[in-house]
Every structure is written in C-alpha cells, then in structure tokens.
Amino acid sequence: MVENRNELSSFLCCCLQNNFPFFAYQLPKSGMIQIGVQTDLDLKDYHSLSELDEQNGFVFSPFDIESCHKSWFIRSDINLAATEIDSGSIQLLRSADIKMDEAYPLGRIFESPHELYFDQVTKMINDLKQFKLEKAILSRIQMLDGMGMNCAVDSFLKLSESYDSAFVFLVSIPKVGTWIGASPETLLSSKNNAIETVALAGTQKLAGRIVDQIKWEQKEVYEQALVSSYVEKVLENHNVSDYHRTGPVTAQAGNVVHLKTTYMLPNGMNFHQLSNLVQDLHPTPAVCGLPKSKAMDLIREIERHDREYYAGYLGPIESNGSISLFVNLRSMKVLENQMALFVGGGITADSIPEKEWEETCLKAQTLLNVIRS
C-alpha cells in the first residue's frame, strides 16, 4: 500500500470531479503507480499508432476499430509517480481548471442475463459448426448497482494493492468514458531493449492448488495453441523469426490461472515497425477468434451489447519509443451509480454453454473479490 494513499486518492478524485483527461496505472511487478494528466480538452484521436511517434502519454483503443469508437491519446502534461503526490499536486490541478462546455451523460448499459447468454452461446456453437470457424469469443456484462463514480478511485487502489502481476489501470476521457481494470495480458511491450508479446488462453479456478501441478483439458490446450499459432503467423508476416518462445506455462491471474506463452523478440524494431505489429496483433484470437474476420462478424451479429473499449488495448507510450500495451481485460466501465463489468470466454464447436457461463463468473470474481472487500 502506498504511504500517501489519502493524498493519492484525493488527487485522482479531483481529476475525475474536474473532468480532466487522465490515466493512472501500475505495470506488472513494478509496485509503482504512475499518473498522467492532460490539462485541456484538446484530445487527439488516431488511426495508426505510428502517428504518435515521439509522444509521451497514454493510448486507449477500442475492440472494434471499425466501430464508432475512436482510438484516443492522452498527453501527460502533468506526469507524477504516486509517491510524489502531496497537497501541492492538487493545487496544481486546480490551477488548470478545465471547463466543460456542457454536462455529458454517462449513458446506460444493460446486463446480459443467464438466459440470453445461454441462447447466444448455443447460436454461436451452431454457427461455428456450420461456417467451420475454429473459435469465437462471446462476452457479457454484469452490472454492479450502487457502485459508480464515487467508488472508482477506491476500486482502482484496491486492485493495485491486490494484483501485483497484472496491469492495473484507471483511465478517464471526458465524453468517452471512465474504465478500471486489472489485465493479465500483454499485447506488446518494448522497454529496456526487450520486446515482448504473449499468447494467453484457457482458464481454470486456482482453488488453492499449486500452480505448477495444474492439469489442462484438451479444449483449453487447443484454444491456447490457436492463439500461439496466430501470434507466430503475425511475427512471420513481419519477418521476425529469431524470437525466443517460452511456454505454454500455467500463469496465475488473481483467483484464476491461464495457459501462457511468452515471445521475446529481437531488439532493433523502431516505433513505426512496432506500430504495424500492434495493428496486426489486435484484436488477438484470445478476445476475437479465428479466422479473425469471420469471428468479428459473428461477434457483431450475436452480441447485443457494445463492447466499446473492452478487449481493446491501452497503455503508456514514451517519446524514446518505449511502449507498454495491454489488452483491456478484467475491466469495468464506470457509470454514475453503477459499474458495468465485462467478461468473456472462448467458444469452440465443443463448448458446453453452462460451463462457459461458469467460466465468465469465475473471471468476474477476479475483480469482484477485491472491489467488494
């Protein structure tokens, strides 16, 4: 726990209450919260990450880049580590004094009940068999009543204290939305002369077991192999062959475990090359399916809700070319008096609807166990 938790909480609450575009995050295994605040509402949207070369800030991109939702870049006009925040930091915020032209609605999101989810899984399984898709991801929404903007900062801080191995984040963009999460999945990271991406799939409850002794069913191994194969194909298309592969291994993420393969890429890729790699990796089969275009069409047809930024990507970028991008998983959109918790799972032709529902409930507990404590 950070020693100046009260000052940090007050600073982040001030950002929210005064409509600053801002971000706060904790990188895996870092134990340090970093915060960036943009001191005006001149927000930049982008189509390709390469447009942001030599910029310092934070990117926030949707799941479906062809949807009405834009990819956004938040500048870090004020850039602070959590340990640097004191009463003077809040005065610095108040001196910026952003003025919104008008109040904006936070919108409404509707829950996905068990019956609807069951029908959607059944239809998706039938379509997978008919159209010979290998895998598609179905998501649903669980609404948390009585928890909204007033709980956002406390929920973020609880997650940062509980999940040291995840990318924990709070990001808020006026007229776009406020999101909180603890993602277990790296999309692409390039920092300190190391480039990394991962293939993550398969889910089990940890249930007090020893991680290294967990056994996996064939369906889960197959799902993970599909994601790994996709990542390797993308690397091949970018003429990257001399990478180092580790896994698949069992990796813990809160109360669940996943199968994870890590790819360490040769150093020397510039920001433009990394941007192109991100463009081809996203969305990965772990959040979309395979073949990707057909799986996307199926998701658009079957899911009745808008994923918005769930299963998109987000993270900090630096002017020196470093990026730390993660898939927006285990996350919630914050509304006025509610939070919309998004969860999903991989569906194959052999899926059993009730087991898929149970998997989404298990994933939801990753956040619920912490924020409701």
From TrEMBL:
GO terms for molecular function: isochorismate synthase activity. It catalyses: chorismate = isochorismate. Its EC number is 5.4.4.2. It is an enzyme of class 5 (isomerase). InterPro entries: ADC_synthase, Chorismate_C, IsoChor_synthase. Keywords: Isomerase. Pfam families: Chorismate_bind. Residues 115-363 form the Chorismate-utilising enzyme C-terminal domain. Belongs to the isochorismate synthase family. This is isochorismate synthase. It comes from Labilibaculum antarcticum.
